[in-house]
Design a protein that fits this description.
Length: 335
């Protein structure tokens, strides 16, 4: 048991005061023992010298066992805890709203297998890096919706992200509505830094909120917007129509991204515009955003404990059981 005393603290240390009763209990035991055994006055003990039996000598362990059980029980009540791990974390957390374009053009095959799947994969890797951030997820095409509100449960965010697919909403590219939906999730946050990462591959052609109006709203609430234009240069195999069964028909189409608008939104809000023409480029974009957005929060000390009281409780029970077993068997006395 000696090894567990290293790095030990007590959750209820006031119980240790009960150990002060130990001398009083010892005195009481000695006093009752004198009353129990009759003293005989004899002229000499020479004749009894060496007559004490081994059983009589071993009987002295009974009060020792009782004392040990008392000590162990008191320590158990004080709830000893062993510090397993202690660490200081300097977290760098902010609120991040991810906005993903779900227009049919995101199924273009200039990224393998398509733009949407690559965008989801890279965004998921970015979420993994942002260990201490609160993250929300919004999506848009011809309209917009919030897929997941701000949360630190990144597993849930990644599950919602993986479930995004084109065709969930009316087709189109409502950049303004996508941005406004994300800003609505951040506007009431009291953190120092709030950012939106808006990814699109097209030109705004739908929605009742203009992109510049949404950018002005973001600026009003101190939300910084990073915009990402995703798509190769030139032409790409893109959905151009749809069959009656919902299957997309692909054709070669020119990649058109309103870079001027995306740059303007980023500039208005203090963010930055990025262009990603392939998966490696998109990964580099998220890596740069990860480096740009660092906000220190207070240092937190985390300690993890393991309860050790059960060891002492078990030892106390063992001593009591052994003391009673010896008292009423091997060391039993006849009145």
């Amino acid at each position: 048991m000696g090894s567990i005393f290293s790095n030990i603290s007590f959750a209820s240390p006031y119980w240790l005061l009960a150990l002060l009763l130990l001398p009083a209990i010892a005195f009481w035991y000695w006093y009752k023992r004198k009353q129990h055994f009759v003293e005989l006055t004899m002229p000499s003990l020479e004749a009894l010298k060496g007559t004490t039996s081994l059983r009589g000598k071993l009987r002295a362990i009974l009060p020792i066992l009782r004392a040990l059980s008392f000590i162990a029980l008191v320590i158990a009540l004080a709830r000893p805890q062993k510090t397993l791990k202690e660490e200081e974390i300097k977290a760098e957390g902010i609120d991040i709203a991810l906005v993903m374009d779900l227009s049919s053009s995101m199924l273009a095959q200039d990224f393998k297998p398509d733009r949407l799947e690559v965008s989801k994969k890279v965004a998921s890797e970015f979420i993994t890096k942002r260990k201490y951030d609160r993250i929300s997820l919004s999506a848009f095409s011809g309209e917009a919706f919030t897929q997941c509100p701000l949360t630190t449960d990144h597993r849930v965010v990644k599950e919602f992200l993986a479930g995004l697919q084109c065709g969930l909403l009316q087709d189109g590219t409502a950049i303004g509505m996508g941005l406004a939906t994300a800003v609505n999730r951040l506007k009431d946050s009291d953190v120092k830094s709030k950012i939106v990462i808006l990814l699109t591959d097209g030109v705004n052609n739908a929605g009742y909120v203009k992109p510049i109006t949404a950018a002005e709203i973001a600026r009003e609430f101190d939300v910084k917007v990073y915009t990402i234009g995703v798509g190769s240069l030139g032409d790409a195999m893109t959905p151009v129509s749809r069959r009656s069964n919902g299957q997309y028909i692909y054709g070669l189409a020119k990649v058109e991204i309103d870079e001027a608008l995306l740059k303007q939104i980023a500039k208005m809000t203090g963010g930055k515009y990025f262009r990603a023409t392939n998966e490696t480029g998109l990964e580099a974009v998220y890596t740069e955003i990860d480096k740009l957005e660092k906000t220190e929060i207070e240092v937190t000390s985390i300690r993890r404990y393991s309860e050790e009281f059960y060891r002492f409780a078990f030892f106390a029970m063992l001593c009591i059981f052994l003391e009673m077993a010896l008292r009423y068997t091997l060391f039993r006395t006849i009145p």
